[in-house]
Write a structure and sequence with these properties.
The structure holds 2 protein chains of 2 kinds. By secondary structure, chain A is mainly β. Helix content of chain A is 0%, strand content 38%. In chain A, a hairpin with a 3-residue loop joins strand 2 and strand 3. The radius of gyration of chain A is 17 Å and the shape is elongated. Chain B is mainly β. Helix content of chain B is 15%, strand content 40%. In chain B, the strands form 2 sheets. Chain B has a 4-stranded mixed β-sheet. Chain B has a 4-stranded antiparallel β-sheet with strand order 2-3-8-7, with no helix packed on it. Chain B is elongated and about 75 Å long. The N and C termini of chain B lie close together (11 Å). The chains are: A mainly beta, B mainly beta. At the A-B interface, strand 6 of A face helix 1, strand 2 and strand 3 of B. Strand 6 of chain A pairs antiparallel with strand 2 of chain B.
Chain lengths: 128, 147
């Protein structure tokens, strides 16, 4: 399920990007489990060292820089794909444990696991 | 003096220029509606067909076609050349709490005369599929010297 500004999702909301940036917002999906957010971001054309993650308070920025995959000798005949890099900003509505954040990139898909901090986990209270 | 390349003067080499022009016409004729694009991530329906976007390039000896297919393993990609139609099909499965969603992404391109399936090479890297199609020998521009 895709979550975005226009949806009623309470989990996250993407901040509008600065108009000067020539970046593309990647397709992504976000799910919230009991103890972690899990985010899947499609970053085709981005090698492992082109991905950067930045957590500033509650805003997670995922940037993906494409490798320069088109050699200068290739003459374009027809273009449909964008060449721009990707930026995705997610505002997280629950505190996450930045130290335990894990990220994996395979086949152009970045999978993030953002563990929630203890305080944000649901607690079961036993009734005696 | 130089002979025309197939694209610089279509009138004198119609038979060569046409197949590749067809590729351009096709590209837009098959464009999905907006609704189709937006539906891609949401609907839990079992299977749907979506069109793959493509980039086409050429250099002196090759044509190149690129497709963005993030999240698809190479086992789930089929590349077929039948007559002069090259078809790329990718099967994609998204897993979520609501279950699995299967998509088929596909795209057909008309190829110029003389491209054979044996010489096409394909590479999948970071979710981008690149096909390399060597141009048939007679299609390369040839410089002819005047004696």
């Amino acid at each position: 399920m895709n979550t975005c500004c226009s949806t009623t999702s309470t989990d996250s909301c993407c901040k509008p990007e600065a108009p000067t940036e020539q970046t593309l917002k990647p397709r992504f999906s976000l799910t919230r489990g009991d103890d972690a957010f899990s985010v899947r971001v499609e970053l085709p054309g981005v090698p492992k060292d082109g991905v950067s993650l930045d957590l500033d308070k509650d805003i997670l920025t995922v940037s993906g820089k494409r490798s320069n995959s088109v050699p200068a000798s290739w003459k374009p005949l027809h273009r449909e794909l964008a060449d721009s890099s990707y930026t995705l900003r997610l505002q997280l509505q629950a505190p996450i444990d930045a130290d335990k954040l894990s990220a994996q990139l395979s086949d152009g898909v970045l999978t993030l696991s953002l563990p929630l901090r203890e305080v944000a986990k649901p607690r079961r209270i036993e009734v005696n | 003096m130089k002979l025309c390349t197939p694209y610089s003067c279509a009138t004198t080499s119609l038979n060569r220029a046409q197949p590749f022009e067809a590729l351009f016409r096709r590209s837009f004729a098959n464009a999905p509606s907006l609704a189709q694009l937006f539906a891609s991530g949401e609907s839990p329906s079992a299977s749907r067909n979506l069109r793959l976007a493509t980039d086409l390039f050429e250099d002196a000896d090759h044509y190149f076609a690129r497709f963005e297919i993030p999240g698809v393993k190479k086992e789930d990609i089929a590349i077929e050349l039948l007559d002069r139609e090259l078809t790329v099909t990718a099967r994609k499965t998204l897993r979520s709490d609501e279950g699995e969603q299967a998509f088929t992404l596909t795209r057909s391109l008309s190829m110029p005369v003389g491209i054979s399936s044996e010489v096409i090479s394909a590479k999948l890297e970071d979710g981008v599929l690149t096909l390399t199609l060597p141009k048939p020998a007679e299609q390369k521009p040839r410089a002819i010297t005047i004696e």
